[in-house]
Amino acid sequence: MSKYKFWFVVGSQSLYGDEVLKTVAERSAEMAAELSKVLPYPLEYKVTAMANKQIADVIKEANYDDTCAGIITWCHTFSPSKMWINGLVNLQKPYCHLATQYNLEIPNEEIDMDFMNLNQAAHGDREHGFIVSRLRMPRKVVAGYWKDEKVHARLGDWMKAAVGVAVSKEMKVMRFGDNMREVAVTEGDKVEAQIKLGWQVNTWATGDLVKEMNAVTEAEIDALMAEYTAAYDIATENVGAIRYQAREEIAMKKMMDREGCKAFSNTFQDLYGMEQLPGLASQHLMAQGYGYGGEGDWKVSAMTAIMKAMGENGNGASAFMEDYTYHLVQGSEYSLGAHMLEVCPSLAATKPRIETHHLGIGMNEKDPARLVFEGKEGDAIVVSLIDMGGRLRLIVQDIVCVKPIMEMPNLPVARVMWKAMPDLTTGVECWITAGGAHHTVLSYDVTAEQMRDWAKMMDIEFVHITKDTTVEKLEEELFLKDLAWKLK
Question: What is the tens place of the pLDDT at every residue in 320-366?
């Protein structure tokens, strides 16, 4: 993620004279430099924009600069908005309008007409805001003093969502085999996904993976085994099963890196030539930032990789997840999330253990090794991207993860327990009403607001289930959105 930066384009006009414009440029450069110290990505001051062609040229440059993840605008003075039209209509990068001013307070003794001419962002930002609304462009508006921590936090969150867009536009998903047979929600229109989200989703035969596995050397396996030993507790005597997972991981990583893929999927129904379904192999790849989807679920695979990139340090605590079973005791309702083998250790509360157990589903010849752990406590979200036929819908639900209320000593998988908002049963009714999938991405790092921003930038439908959501309100919301999206 370190390659990305954001451009700071400041609005003004030529009528104020050279002295004022020099001050505007100096202050803008100062603000960009200071903000870069506290924001997750650098903010580069590009230009004080004063003419139509100047704005059109800088936006054209931003569109074709792969390191530019978005632009942030601010109008230090009044900036006539008609001159922004030709540039903004061609903008292809995420866009944020920072409504701020250089000075914190009105200076009682200093304020005069010269001060007013120089410091009229309250005037300029409203003119600028009008034209963006008139153009009906997606954008984020962040208002407040540019040195305030709250402003920094909101700008930083928006930047991470914008980086999620950049990652999405470059996303390539490697599917080992096809989807689990007869499952509906893991299907979808791959052509539409590429048009809308930029994803390239293609299939490689499981036999291709087996061929790559056969070429892995013992020395390569030894090196990866050392990584496993350093990162995890070995809680099995079946070292051969762990080495087999290492062989699978090395082969999958080589294939993905060769093709430029950051996400992958597989299914337990298609293990042609393989002894074990990748468990530990998939988990350790996710810990490195790769996305994963079980049963051939390429949508959740790509979303996992994108949300990891949006998280802390460009690889946050986000993971492939599945609602497995409920605890329905009145007053103590919880959802238990897990998967057969593949939950990312970035969710772990303590050091994960490598264990080997029988897997009673699929075509495994031998018992797969996997990481076993409990998830962390804390606020989180679960996210599902579904294909509604003609459009994509992103569903986000707020949850609170808890320490599992029981040990479950005979459940040899990674698991997370949580309280769903607004409560378990209402949340389930809302999730099902919205069409949410059984596969999700669970994230402690990415927020619902960031996912709302991402959905807006990608021009897809967004549904948020919160502590205040009711089934009745959600049904009404979905009805109105269905009408609105049919008109788009």
Answer: 999 999 999 999 999 999 998 999 999 999 999 999 998 877 767 78
Tell me the whole-structure pTM to 2 decimals.
0.94
> Which of the four pLDDT bands, split at 50, 70 and 90, describes residue 473?
very high
* CA 446 from centroid of its chain's CA atoms: 7
Handedness of CA 298, 303, 306, 308 (dihedral sign): negative
Q: pLDDT class for 1, splitting at 50, 70, 90?
A: low
User: What pLDDT does residue 478 have?
Assistant: 95
| Whole-number Å distance between alpha carbons of 133 and 330 | 48
First to last CA, the chain: 33
Paired sense of beta strands 353-356 and 318-329, if any: unpaired
User: If pLDDT is split at 50, 70 and 90, which confidence band does 99 have?
Assistant: very high
Q: Which residues in 258-349 belong to E strands, given as ranges?
A: 263-265, 291-293, 318-329, 332-338
Distance CA(241)–CA(208), nearest Å, equals 21
Q: What angle do CA 60, 64, 67 make, to 5 degrees?
A: 120
Report which residue type is found at 419.
Answer: K
Residues whose CB falls within 8 Å of the CB of residue 43, separated by 6 or more in sequence, listed in order: 5, 6, 7, 8, 32, 35, 36, 72
SS3 266: coil
Q: What is the dihedral of CA 256, 259, 265, 268, to 10 degrees?
A: -70
Instruction: Looking at 198-312, list the stretches that DSSP marks H as alpha helix, in order from N- to C-terminal side.
Output: 206-214, 218-231, 239-259, 280-287, 298-310
